[in-house]
Design brief:
Layout: E1 5-13, E2 16-21, E3 24-30, H1 32-41, E4 47-51, H2 63-72, E5 77-80, H3 86-94, E6 99-102, H4 104-108, H5 111-120, E7 125-133, E8 139-143, E9 148-149, H6 154-164, E10 168-173, H7 185-192, E11 199-202, H8 208-216, E12 222-225, H9 227-230, E13 231-232, E14 237-238, H10 245-252
């Protein structure tokens, strides 16, 4: 197994998978079960599934979908979306999901991080931080899928969450989401160098070199991607793919 991880990050909207660009204009890319079957065949090490409309629609996790996905997924699975209570977390983990991802709840109810860490262990608790670059420099943490300004600095917020017991941070650069123009390595480096927990970079991957840059330049422990693994070619035709072990080994220099 490689030291560095390349993680498909799938976005769930209703019953289907979508891909966004800068958190907007979701494009349907297929059925989650079919995608997971392909990733199983390609022996992906880990998978992240995020329900992007659960919180904005005021509903909880789609437990039926989670159960179906978890039963089909042969790799460690992280799930986020609509998680508001410790009971939600325990139910999701009982279905076979290895990690829960908290985003809006980490902003509005950070105490849930501490509760979850005590109940299921820090290694199973991921905080997802959505970040936008400010007009005159610097960064700001955003809530509600990039629609709400929090006034929080990503590094100080990440440190707070790490102190509460989060075991991993999923750091999402909104401005790079779906663009395939490369990660914001400056943002990754800022946060990864300032916290003691692993940082997973997401937002902007368009090539294996981009994945390597997130880790080698940004200092991320892992690189997650959506478009890179679901689109092919300049016209972004839907094609589920994943690099081979040897391709990743060469890219990561391992």
């Amino acid at each position: 197994m490689l030291r560095s991880r390349a993680i498909p990050c799938l976005l769930l909207k209703g019953q289907g998978l979508v891909k966004t660009v800068k958190f907007r204009d979701p494009k349907y890319v297929g059925d989650p079960i079919n995608a997971i079957k392909i990733f199983n065949e390609k022996e992906v090490d880990e998978l992240t599934l995020l329900d992007i409309t659960a919180s904005s629609e005021g509903r909880g996790p789609s437990f039926k979908v989670i159960e179906e996905v978890a039963s089909e997924c042969f790799m460690p699975l992280a799930y986020g979306g609509g998680i508001r209570t410790l009971e939600d977390i325990k139910k999701i983990v009982s279905m076979g999901v290895e990690k829960v991802v908290l985003n809006n709840a980490a902003i509005s109810n950070p105490g849930l991080i501490a509760e979850a860490a005590r109940e299921i262990g820090s290694q199973s608790v991921v905080a997802s931080i959505d970040v936008r670059r400010k007009l005159f420099g610097g960064y700001e943490v955003m809530g509600d899928r990039g629609r709400v300004k929090t006034g929080r600095d990503p590094l100080s917020f990440a440190r707070t969450l790490a102190g509460l017991g989060v075991g991993e941070i999923l750091l999402n650069a909104i401005d790079r989401d779906g663009t395939q123009e490369g990660y914001d390595t400056e943002l990754i480096r800022l946060v990864a160098a300032g916290v003691s927990v692993p940082v997973v970079a997401v937002g902007g991957a368009g090539s294996l070199q981009n994945l390597a840059d997130a880790i080698k330049i940004g200092g991320a422990a892992a690189a997650a991607a959506g478009s890179l693994f679901v689109f092919h070619g300049p016209h972004r035709a839907v094609l589920i793919s994943y690099p081979s072990y040897d391709e990743l080994r060469v890219a990561f220099g391992e």
